[in-house]
Amino acid sequence: MRQKGFAHLFVIIAIFIIGLGGVGYSIYKKTTERNQSQQVSETIPTEENQTPALSPTSDQKPTPLSKPKITSTNTPVPTTQSYNGVCDVITLAGSNPNEVVLTYSLTSSGGRYMKEARWDLNNDGQWDHDFSSSNAQVTTNLTSGNSKTVRLQLKLSDNTFTNACIKNISAPSGTWITIWGYVFSDNNCSGFMDSSESGIVDVPVRITKISDYSTYGTTNTDGGGKFSYTSLLNELIEMTVTMTSPSGYKSHPTHIIGSSLMGYGKNTNVQMNIPQVPYASVGQCSF
Description:
The protein is about 15% helix and about 35% strand. By secondary structure, the protein is α+β, with helices and mostly antiparallel strands. Strands 8, 11, 13, 15 and 16 form a 5-stranded mixed β-sheet that branches. Strands 4-3-6-7 form a 4-stranded antiparallel β-sheet, with no helix packed on it. A 4-stranded antiparallel β-sheet has the order 10-9-12-14, with no helix packed on it. It is rod-shaped and about 190 Å long. The chain has helices spanning about 1-45, 280; strands spanning about 85-95, 100-105, 115-120, 130, 140, 145-155, 165-170, 175-185, 205-210, 215-220, 225-235, 235-240, 250, 260, 270, 275-280. It is found in: Secreted.
């Protein structure tokens, strides 16, 4: 009986140990699973630890993404100018002894013509007149001494340029004068050109010095009977105009053409008309 009781006690103790082991194993397994779950939660972000996206009405501004910097070398584009032709400065007399009219000449241009001009009137490196077609002729004064140096450059018809030409200029000696007028058919013998009277074409006219009646210059009338003569005078000269009457005409016997003292400080632009009476009208004239 006693042996049988020990056997029952042993079985109870064994069952208790096995149950205790099962409980311990269950506790161990749950602990292990909990630790693994915590490790996973630390590596995978959840809604609680993620940064919430900004809504359109949020006061917080998103940080802009930085853009890669682009380095520019700014390599200059080479510009070239083509040069053609040779320019030169031409001086003309102005309206007073210190005034000079400047214009240009162009050679070796290969058929190109002047489109625009610019001037440096003191040769100081600064253009006083920039490129313009109106600068084909400019006026300057000799303010110090009797001469100065000027610089000119031309822009040509194909947009090429001449090299700048530099020239020392001085005032031309004298003053420009012009004598002009009409040789006309004086049909009513009045000695004056009326609106109904016309000029006589291609008549030679002499510019004559009163002092000795020598010929100073010659010109011819144009298609309207007008003549014009321009010259540079370096002295004062009393002048008039004379001519030989063309075929079919005779000079007005009583009309005095007159004369004019031409030169600086005196007359520089004078009109002198020359009436010619047609033979057909001579009988009607009261002279």
